[in-house]
Amino acid sequence: MRRPHVVVLHRWRADYAHYDRYVDHEAYTVTYVTTEVGATAVPAPAAEVVVVPATDDLARIRKEVDALAARHGAPRSVVALKEDDLLVAAQVALEWNCRGRHPSELLPFRDKQLMTAAVARAGLAVQPTAPAPHAAAVRDFARIHGWPVVVKPVASSSSEGVVVAADERDLDTVPFAEDRPLIAQAHNPHPVHHVDGVFDGRELLCWKASRYLDSCLGFRHGSTLGSVEEDRAEVVAAVGDFALRALRALTSSPTPFHLEVFVDAQAPSGPRVTFLEVGARVGGAEIPYVWREVHGYDLMEAAFRIALGEEPPPWAPAPRAETAGWLLAPAPAARPCRITGVIPMTGRRPGPYAEELLRPGDVLPAADAYYEHVGGRFRFRGPDSAAVQAAVEATARDFRVTGETCETGAAGAGDVTGAAGAAGAAGAAGATSGGTR
Questions:
Q1: In terms of C-beta density within 10 A (0-12 exposed, 13-18 middle, 19 or more buried), how is residue 3 classed?
Q2: Which of its termini does the chain have fewer beta carbons within 10 Å around, N or C?
Q3: Nearest residue to 153 (alpha-carbon basis) of 87, 84, 88
């Protein structure tokens, strides 16, 4: 008798997800469809590994799952944890009559127009948003809402394709295309917070609110990106209430979530929260790590179990409450690049408790998991937000990594230091893009 067959779509080289802990590879036949970069992280007990150029290519994934099914039996589940792969996995799972999330459940978390409309219908504050098929539509939008205007893809991640148009001259840099719909969104000057956790279909099972230091779009342009968990009680309460209402507006099913909101902490009537974006997945960067290491809960396991059609693990707060944070340093040169020098930061005070660095000679690939393949990744813990922020800022200031683009050698050489963009004043990000989406 064949064992139940689970197919996993995978693209990370880092151990964001511990698949061999989430499903018994002896009791189940677990196969993986992965990119070349992600293949080295597939657990050794995998029944089969198929390498593809991209895990978000529906036609290719459908073909590979069909072939895996012929060899191992019809899949019981098709699982993906990376945001860009969610709809592909859900569609293939639907075609094989698998348990798990239906594509219609996920679409409002991928289509920025649908998600904004759903949250607005619930009576929550949202940024004015409209379709932006061409420059004229953005100019019309700006006449109503003013400049600058944020123009971004309806469905994308990691701030890819986002342009902040200060005026109509900047519209020349917007990648208008019929096959990739864009939206225009009014600019919001207030700091961006991200909220991460698990919604059980009724309540927030677990969650933490954090504020960005610098901006996600700025990270694409060479600055550092930091985050510190929020400990101002009035902000935490306002963000938590908003998150619960937003998730209820979007789904009645269990889901992991990464929500981004603007917070005006100085509003006269108390913190004012405005919706930006939300994903039905675990937050990127170091979020899965700090949740496991500092808070004692594996968000990736919760996401995996939900994708299997099971209940997420129960939440039990860590006995010793701590505040967490993280920092990303950008690549020192255009990827793929070879690292030529790096200065570790662990052991410094204040500094990170953990770091993920390449060694001189290693190549930083031009892979799709954008926040994984960077110049340096750092994790922090401390008694409060102020202590963690001080450590993040010190690390952003002192860290140095150098490298050269592989195709051009020394001509593409570069470096990243604290001067490239210290993760400084909280909220310097403004409101330009979708955070770690």
A1: middle
A2: N
A3: 84
